[in-house]
Amino acid sequence: MLIQSPKNEKVKQWKKLLTKKGRDQANRYLVEGDHLVQEALLAGAVEELIITETSMTKYTETSFGSVGIQMISDPIGKILSETETTQGIFAVCKKKIDTKVSGIRFLLIDAVQDPGNLGTMIRTADASGIDAVIIGKGSVDLYNPKVLRAAQGSHFHLPIVQGDLSEWISHFQSESIPVYGTSLQGGESMYTLDPGKPFALIVGNEGRGVHPSLLQQTAKNIFIPIFGKSESLNVSVATGILLYYLRGNDSVVGKEI
Amino acid sequence: MLIQSPKNEKVKQWKKLLTKKGRDQANRYLVEGDHLVQEALLAGAVEELIITETSMTKYTETSFGSVGIQMISDPIGKILSETETTQGIFAVCKKKIDTKVSGIRFLLIDAVQDPGNLGTMIRTADASGIDAVIIGKGSVDLYNPKVLRAAQGSHFHLPIVQGDLSEWISHFQSESIPVYGTSLQGGESMYTLDPGKPFALIVGNEGRGVHPSLLQQTAKNIFIPIFGKSESLNVSVATGILLYYLRGNDSVVGKEI
């Protein structure tokens, strides 16, 4: 059956997933576009596929395995889309609640507001081989469409925990994983740390940085040296530099927690 | 005199600076906001200051030295602003045409389209102590307001040349500065290069990367290893990781060209 009416009950439910409140209530979110939908399918996260009439011609019946497909008119596709020119394919995904982590490299994110930044940081954490990302209170919603787009599928690649950063710092410390804050004031150069060792790195809000109460809990607070005249770095860029520096190029002989 | 009419000749001229065509014709551009205006003043780039009635109360007559100030009504400020809530201060700046460079570390940018990316890359080049940035054809306008905002004043901190990248590659090679392209296909890990030596690094377009014809001119093409499951990194983040890796922490005993 082709859904054509914006008043259709399913369309109403899907539209709710475009807001944080709707996503929280339904415990579900919407991904859009070929690449993200494929990543979601691979991860087994998809409950329902939604495809426009026009886009349907691109696929065969067997493209998506056993996942149910709902066909919609192109105008309904425009309603659901967060992009200027939609690829006409969406997936309703169930949130995956990660609560435990294991590994030797972690990224903790404190109150990052910009969805592009948060998504890019998750993508970078994935690329640098981080074992899990912990997102504290006050960050933009992890399932915001712009966060999903910037992360380019990394939501499906590594555990992402939403929790209390202060408690997680204590947890990592109890497991002998040193926790490093980032701070332009009162910190030490990242070069005072040797690469290739276990770490949990905290990065923070675009304006104020990492909250002072968290910086007091850490083993050390570090900064990236500025060799030129700029005052600071963009938080996504800084996160990439720090994660790649701390990882280093050698394989790590570390402990698993 | 307070300018209140959108039809005022000056307002018409300023509005033209909001488009690339207008900036090219006038050889001037507009910066907005306290921080950028201060940076432009420090650099001696400002020809005229434009301040709204409301914002004028924040400053004293002597805040800006001898630069002429034009007061405008708040609604005119809204017309000139590219932000949601303007700080009500603008400066008309004359383009600074850099053609020569000197130093041992260079960043070449090939056809980067997103203004946030280009601005962030200039800011990062500044932070990492790059001696000059060379921007090739096909990139977003260097003086686009979003590029200026993302660069946070770095336009005024280091030479930025607009030119033919192929010619610049030949120039650096003739000066014995090795040129490295970036390429996910057919390249070598960045870790095959030792940090702390002179370099000219080419980074490229968000979709296609560095143009193949440029990659054929280089000494070596490199990539950032992906340790996780993501396919690639955001180009601004990748630029930051590469520039900080190649610089290294030690002072460089290099040659000046």
Automatic annotation (TrEMBL), chains A, B:
Coiled-coil residues: none
Record's GO cellular component terms: cytoplasm
Keyword terms: Methyltransferase, Transferase
One biological process term in Gene Ontology: RNA processing
SUPFAM superfamilies noted in UniProt: alpha/beta knot (SSF75217), L30e-like (SSF55315)
Membrane-spanning residues: none
Domain RNA 2-O ribose methyltransferase substrate binding residues, every copy: 30-99
Superkingdom: Bacteria
Molecular function per GO: RNA binding; RNA methyltransferase activity
Pfam families hit by this protein: MRM3-like_sub_bind, SpoU_methylase
Family in the record: Belongs to the class IV-like SAM-binding methyltransferase superfamily. RNA methyltransferase TrmH family.
Protein name from the UniProt record: RNA methyltransferase
Organism: Fervidibacillus halotolerans
